[in-house]
Amino acid sequence: MTESAVSRLSAVGRVPEDVRHAAAQQKKFDNENTERSVGYVMLDCSGTTMDRYVDAPAIVFVEVFKKYGLEISMPEAREPMGLRKDLHIKAITEIKSVRERFSAKFGRAPNQSDIDAMFADFVPTQLALLRAGSYHDLLPGVADVVKGLRQQGIKLGVTTGFTRDMLDLLLAGAAGQGFVPDTACAGDEVEMPRPTPYMVIKNLERMGVYNLENAMRRTVKVDDTVSGAGEGAPLCWRVGVSKWSNYVADSWDAVRKMSPAELAARELASKEKLVRESGAHYVIDDLRDLPAVIADINQRLAAGENP
Predict the structure, then answer these.
(1) Is the distance from CB of 293 to CB of 244 less than 8 angstroms?
(2) What is the CATH code of the structural domain delimited by 55-132?
(3) N or C: which end of the chain has fewer CB within 10 A?
(4) Which helix (H) or strand (E) holds 283?
(5) Superfamily (CATH) of domain 40-54+135-302
């Protein structure tokens, strides 16, 4: 006679591990994503795969504040980069220098109605810029790296601080260059965007993942900003990319006028910031260095290490 499973419960109802793992539903979870190798890579857009130096949103933040009646500098506009765009506008208003100028101009501190009004202007302005420009042009080496990841059986996702409409424009432009991710998640598709892991998780959900813990262990998130390179913590591997980052320059035009020495110094400063502030496991120049990182992570996973 088969032993009753109920008879094996402890006094407080604890189910023995062998009984629990024999359940068909539990087996499905237990047997998924058990490989000790990278299976998923989540990529950012501007500054990581396209739009060198993250010009597209920075230009619009400056313009939107100016139209609202307040001049902000490009460094002020860029400081919170990586956040969802409405939260980015809020973060700009919380910068001490901006807040002081705002109060002097309007006789009060900025509030949520100001943020909402500027975001309402930001959306159509950003969409118009993305439609008119070439901000979807892939950065050097991205197409080849993506092709190599595909050949390894790695699935690709995208996360971004842009809204879904903005992301769709960028992905449509990138598709003809060979960049077609399996899934993508925009900042307005989750309640809590960067630096929390929910956009990464949403991508995995859309990929049909069952065992989230195992899948996150096999996931690498790549980004050029502090908040983006922290996205996914503490559940997945995180990689900062510094060469085309938001932190290097005010614009691509400004870079063209720099001496090689000045550009090298700025690139080094960008890397230093990511190393010190993001909590990333790796900080590299750009995506062309990612295959070596993945090989190293695979060794760490095979040795039993987790993020």
Answers:
(1) no
(2) 1.10.150.240
(3) N
(4) strand 282-284
(5) HAD superfamily/HAD-like (3.40.50.1000)
Residues 6+ apart with CB under 8 A from 8: 15, 16, 19
The rounded distance, in Å, linking the Cα atoms of 274 and 256 is 23
Question: What's this model's pTM, rounded to 2 decimal places?
Answer: 0.95
Q: What are the distances in angstroms from CA 281 to CA 204, 267, 278?
A: 20, 19, 9
DSSP string, 210-247: S-HHHHHHTEEEEESSHHHHHTTTTTSEEEEE-TT-TT
State yes or no: is 168 an active-site residue. Answer: no
Cα–Cα distances in Å, from 124 out to 18, 64, 118, 119, 168? 57, 11, 11, 9, 14
State yes or no: is 85 an active-site residue.
yes
Q: pLDDT confidence of 1, banded at 50, 70, 90? A: low
Q: Which of the following is catalytic: 55, 85, 90, 202? A: 85
**Which residue ranges does the chain devote to CATH 1.10.150.240?**
55-132
For CATH 3.40.50.1000, list the domain ranges present in the chain.
40-54+135-302
Say if residue 3's pLDDT is above 90. no
The mean pLDDT of the chain is 97
Query: Alpha carbon 190 to chain centroid distance?
Result: 13
The C-alpha atoms of residue 52 and residue 248 are separated, in whole angstroms, by 10
